[in-house]
Amino acid sequence: MMEEPVRLPVVATLLSLVACSESAEGPTPKLEGLINPLQRLITPARVCNAGGGERGWRLEIVGTGFNPLPRDALTDTPSVELPQVTLSGPSDYTLPADHLFFARSELMRMDLPSRDSTPSSQLAPGAYTVAVTNPLGGTSELEDGLRVVPAPTLTSITAPQGFSYGGGSPLVIEGSGFRSDALPLITLHREGEEDQPLFSITVVSDTRIETEVPPATPEGTYDLVLTNPEGCAVSRPQALTVAYPKLGLLTLSPRSGPGSSDTAITLDNTRSGDQRPFSPGIQDVYLVAPVKTDPTQRVNIPLRDVARVSESQLTATVPTCAGFDPPPITDPRCPGGIVPGGPYALIVVDPSGAVGLVPESAGFTVSASLLNDAPTP
């Protein structure tokens, strides 16, 4: 099967190469290597014995002297016989002709079937010798030219310390087929939301990975998807439910302030059941609102001068005029300030990892105090 149509001049050239005798041995190919496009710089090439889509994994065969042979060129049904590619190792396999594609004498491509392709063929893991044989004879072999690796498996996913909103939450993944020589891509997936990649990854062994769930990951149940660099992947549905310990009912006073100056507020924490108090340390408090430099986007704006008065009370300053800018603000127009409007929600992150929310309905309103201030719609 040709990846690109063979033009008549090409057929003529090929015919001229073999015109003297079809029985004569053609040029001997020289196989230099295989390339997995997912890992172009890795030699020998690695390929997964599962996944890869309907036709398997696309690999590139690089060398010189790859010489297809035209057949029935002077008939109404001309064809081309491509070099044969065979693998020998823990198991032996000859690539079907319709899985080979000739690009030029230095490059061919092949679709290597896997457990999940059609047709399927699951090669045993290990090192394989690759051989390319031209139709008129001549064979080149490359020992350890291809490494077949198994797909990883997932048996256990645990968060031994639970989840913390304000910091990374340790996560332990157990299974098989993990690779310390090339870090996997691990993502949390939930329908309707962007995938959340996990960044801090340590492959402890081929059966254990230690990583962490990033701070402020939205609560909910996630699928976990692990993908090794060569393409091997595994997914575990509903693998992880992220939930944070909660502070009590949060209320603030005052609930509004002018846009022309920052506003001091008090936050009270009324608890019941297993809800958490304000613990010793510094709480992170955010107002979820737009700033004038980007009025269409609500962002988490940190409050200043946060102080714990008791386990049930905090004081802080809403930077209504300053926004993200460092004080003092000398421009009375407060160009980086919070867009007048609201009410805006507040998020409180406790050093213990607990989180609390003042909803928009009970949040903070920024009043328009300048003629050129316009409330949000």
Main beta sheet strand tally, sense and closure: 6 strands, mixed
Question: What's the CATH topology label of the largest domain?
Answer: Immunoglobulin-like
Strand tally = 29
User: Which stretches of 5+ consecutive residues score pLDDT under 50?
Assistant: 4-24, 370-377
At the first level of CATH, the class of the largest domain is Mainly Beta
Count helical runs. 1
What's the overall average pLDDT, rounded? 90
Helix percentage: under 10%
Order of helices and strands: HEEEEEEEEEEEEEEEEEEEEEEEEEEEEE
Number of domains: 3
Quaternary form:
single chain
Quick one: overall form? elongated
Cα-based radius of gyration, to the nearest Å: 32 Å
Give the distance, in angstroms, between the N- and C-terminal Cα atoms: 61 Å
> Which structural class should the secondary elements be placed in?
mainly beta
CATH superfamily of the largest domain: Immunoglobulins
CATH architecture of the largest domain: Sandwich
Protein name: IPT/TIG domain-containing protein
InterPro entries: Ig-like_fold, Ig_E-set, IPT_dom
Structural write-up:
- The chain is mainly β.
- The chain folds into three domains: 8-149, Sandwich (Immunoglobulin-like), CATH 2.60.40; 153-242, Immunoglobulins (Immunoglobulin-like), CATH 2.60.40.10; 249-367, Sandwich (Immunoglobulin-like).
- It is 3% helix and 46% strand.
- Strands 21, 23, 24, 27, 28 and 29 form a six-stranded mixed beta sheet that branches. It has a five-stranded mixed beta sheet with strand order 2-11-10-6-7, with no helix packed on it.
- The longest helix is centred in the N-terminal third of the chain and has 11 residues, at 8-18.
- Residues 152-230 form the IPT/TIG domain.
- Pfam families: TIG.
